Amino acid sequence: MPSQFDATSALVNSAAGDAAPGNAAQDDAALDDAAIGGATKTTAASVADTEILVCATCRPNGAAIDTRRRPGEELIDALRAALPESGLGETVRLRSVRCLGVCNRPCTVAVSAADKFTYVVGDLAVETDVDGLLAFVAQYRAAGDGVTGWFERPECVRDHTIARVPNLGMVSDTVSDA
Asked: How far apart are CA 40 and CA 92, in angstroms?
Protein backbone atom coordinates (compact mmCIF):
# COMPACT_ATOMS: atom_id res chain seq x y z
CA MET A 1 0.00 0.00 0.00
CA PRO A 2 1.53 3.36 -1.00
CA SER A 3 2.30 5.76 1.82
CA GLN A 4 1.15 9.37 1.94
CA PHE A 5 4.78 10.33 1.22
CA ASP A 6 4.77 8.22 -1.96
CA ALA A 7 1.59 9.91 -3.16
CA THR A 8 2.99 13.36 -2.37
CA SER A 9 6.27 12.51 -4.08
CA ALA A 10 4.49 11.29 -7.18
CA LEU A 11 2.44 14.48 -7.32
CA VAL A 12 5.48 16.73 -6.87
CA ASN A 13 7.61 14.75 -9.30
CA SER A 14 4.95 14.88 -11.99
CA ALA A 15 4.57 18.63 -11.40
CA ALA A 16 8.35 19.03 -11.61
CA GLY A 17 8.50 16.95 -14.79
CA ASP A 18 10.31 13.96 -13.25
CA ALA A 19 9.10 10.65 -14.57
CA ALA A 20 9.22 8.32 -11.59
CA PRO A 21 9.25 8.71 -7.84
CA GLY A 22 11.37 6.50 -5.65
CA ASN A 23 14.59 8.29 -4.72
CA ALA A 24 13.88 9.86 -1.32
CA ALA A 25 16.58 12.55 -1.69
CA GLN A 26 15.28 13.55 -5.10
CA ASP A 27 11.67 13.42 -3.88
CA ASP A 28 12.49 15.73 -0.94
CA ALA A 29 14.37 18.10 -3.24
CA ALA A 30 11.48 18.18 -5.69
CA LEU A 31 9.09 18.98 -2.86
CA ASP A 32 11.33 21.84 -1.68
CA ASP A 33 11.76 23.10 -5.24
CA ALA A 34 8.02 22.95 -5.91
CA ALA A 35 7.46 25.22 -2.93
CA ILE A 36 9.45 28.01 -4.62
CA GLY A 37 8.71 27.31 -8.23
CA GLY A 38 11.91 25.39 -8.97
CA ALA A 39 14.39 27.99 -7.68
CA THR A 40 17.09 25.33 -7.63
CA LYS A 41 17.30 21.84 -9.02
CA THR A 42 18.74 19.74 -6.24
CA THR A 43 19.62 16.11 -6.84
CA ALA A 44 21.57 13.47 -4.97
CA ALA A 45 24.69 14.63 -6.86
CA SER A 46 24.29 18.25 -5.71
CA VAL A 47 27.19 19.89 -3.88
CA ALA A 48 25.11 22.53 -2.07
CA ASP A 49 26.50 23.02 1.43
CA THR A 50 24.86 26.35 2.26
CA GLU A 51 21.23 27.42 2.25
CA ILE A 52 19.59 30.78 1.77
CA LEU A 53 16.13 30.52 3.32
CA VAL A 54 13.83 33.36 2.29
CA CYS A 55 10.66 34.25 4.17
CA ALA A 56 7.99 34.30 1.49
CA THR A 57 5.05 35.45 3.64
CA CYS A 58 6.12 38.80 5.13
CA ARG A 59 4.58 41.94 3.77
CA PRO A 60 5.63 45.54 4.35
CA ASN A 61 4.51 47.09 7.63
CA GLY A 62 1.03 48.52 7.36
CA ALA A 63 0.33 46.81 4.04
CA ALA A 64 -3.22 45.63 3.63
CA ILE A 65 -3.86 41.95 3.05
CA ASP A 66 -4.16 41.65 -0.70
CA THR A 67 -3.26 39.40 -3.58
CA ARG A 68 -0.08 41.29 -4.48
CA ARG A 69 3.18 39.33 -4.54
CA ARG A 70 5.04 39.42 -1.28
CA PRO A 71 8.54 40.98 -1.09
CA GLY A 72 10.06 37.58 -0.22
CA GLU A 73 8.71 36.09 -3.43
CA GLU A 74 10.33 38.93 -5.35
CA LEU A 75 13.61 38.37 -3.48
CA ILE A 76 13.52 34.68 -4.37
CA ASP A 77 13.14 35.59 -8.05
CA ALA A 78 16.01 38.10 -7.85
CA LEU A 79 18.30 35.62 -6.07
CA ARG A 80 17.39 32.87 -8.52
CA ALA A 81 18.38 35.19 -11.39
CA ALA A 82 21.63 36.36 -9.73
CA LEU A 83 22.95 33.04 -8.38
CA PRO A 84 24.31 31.69 -11.70
CA GLU A 85 26.49 34.78 -12.14
CA SER A 86 27.58 34.99 -8.49
CA GLY A 87 30.36 32.43 -8.64
CA LEU A 88 28.60 30.36 -5.98
CA GLY A 89 27.42 27.85 -8.56
CA GLU A 90 25.63 24.85 -7.11
CA THR A 91 27.15 25.35 -3.65
CA VAL A 92 24.09 27.30 -2.48
CA ARG A 93 20.55 26.01 -2.21
CA LEU A 94 17.77 28.61 -2.35
CA ARG A 95 14.69 27.73 -0.31
CA SER A 96 11.40 29.36 0.62
CA VAL A 97 10.11 29.45 4.20
CA ARG A 98 6.49 30.23 5.00
CA CYS A 99 7.49 32.30 8.04
CA LEU A 100 10.74 33.17 9.80
CA GLY A 101 8.86 34.95 12.60
CA VAL A 102 10.35 38.37 11.91
CA CYS A 103 7.21 39.84 10.40
CA ASN A 104 8.13 43.44 11.10
CA ARG A 105 11.40 43.17 9.11
CA PRO A 106 10.57 42.06 5.53
CA CYS A 107 12.46 40.88 3.42
CA THR A 108 14.10 38.44 5.83
CA VAL A 109 16.50 35.61 5.06
CA ALA A 110 18.45 33.04 7.02
CA VAL A 111 21.86 31.88 5.79
CA SER A 112 22.67 28.46 7.19
CA ALA A 113 25.03 25.51 6.87
CA ALA A 114 25.90 22.44 8.92
CA ASP A 115 28.28 23.13 11.82
CA LYS A 116 28.09 26.89 11.28
CA PHE A 117 26.29 29.79 12.86
CA THR A 118 23.06 30.77 11.13
CA TYR A 119 22.61 34.44 10.28
CA VAL A 120 19.14 36.00 10.15
CA VAL A 121 19.07 39.22 8.13
CA GLY A 122 16.02 41.43 7.60
CA ASP A 123 14.94 44.62 5.90
CA LEU A 124 16.60 43.62 2.63
CA ALA A 125 15.69 45.63 -0.45
CA VAL A 126 15.10 43.49 -3.52
CA GLU A 127 16.29 46.28 -5.81
CA THR A 128 19.65 46.95 -4.10
CA ASP A 129 20.73 44.17 -1.73
CA VAL A 130 20.91 40.96 -3.77
CA ASP A 131 24.58 41.36 -4.75
CA GLY A 132 25.56 42.26 -1.18
CA LEU A 133 23.69 39.27 0.22
CA LEU A 134 25.41 36.93 -2.23
CA ALA A 135 28.81 38.48 -1.40
CA PHE A 136 28.07 37.76 2.26
CA VAL A 137 27.14 34.16 1.43
CA ALA A 138 30.55 33.74 -0.23
CA GLN A 139 32.25 35.12 2.92
CA TYR A 140 30.11 32.87 5.11
CA ARG A 141 31.01 29.77 3.09
CA ALA A 142 34.74 30.61 3.44
CA ALA A 143 34.54 31.03 7.23
CA GLY A 144 35.03 27.77 9.16
CA ASP A 145 32.23 28.40 11.64
CA GLY A 146 30.35 30.90 9.47
CA VAL A 147 31.38 33.90 11.57
CA THR A 148 32.48 36.76 9.38
CA GLY A 149 34.12 40.00 10.43
CA TRP A 150 31.55 42.68 11.09
CA PHE A 151 33.42 45.35 9.10
CA GLU A 152 33.99 42.95 6.19
CA ARG A 153 30.30 42.18 5.76
CA PRO A 154 28.45 44.02 2.99
CA GLU A 155 26.52 46.98 4.39
CA CYS A 156 23.11 45.41 3.79
CA VAL A 157 24.07 42.49 6.03
CA ARG A 158 26.09 44.47 8.58
CA ASP A 159 23.30 46.98 9.14
CA HIS A 160 20.41 44.51 9.10
CA THR A 161 21.60 41.41 10.95
CA ILE A 162 18.87 40.35 13.35
CA ALA A 163 20.61 37.35 14.88
CA ARG A 164 23.61 35.06 14.66
CA VAL A 165 22.51 31.70 16.08
CA PRO A 166 24.86 28.82 16.90
CA ASN A 167 24.13 25.43 15.41
CA LEU A 168 22.78 22.77 17.78
CA GLY A 169 25.64 21.32 19.83
CA MET A 170 28.16 23.63 18.18
CA VAL A 171 31.61 23.95 19.70
CA SER A 172 33.34 27.23 18.91
CA ASP A 173 35.50 29.93 20.46
CA THR A 174 32.29 31.90 20.96
CA VAL A 175 30.11 29.09 22.38
CA SER A 176 30.73 27.21 25.63
CA ASP A 177 28.79 25.28 28.24
CA ALA A 178 27.33 27.54 30.93
From this structure: 9
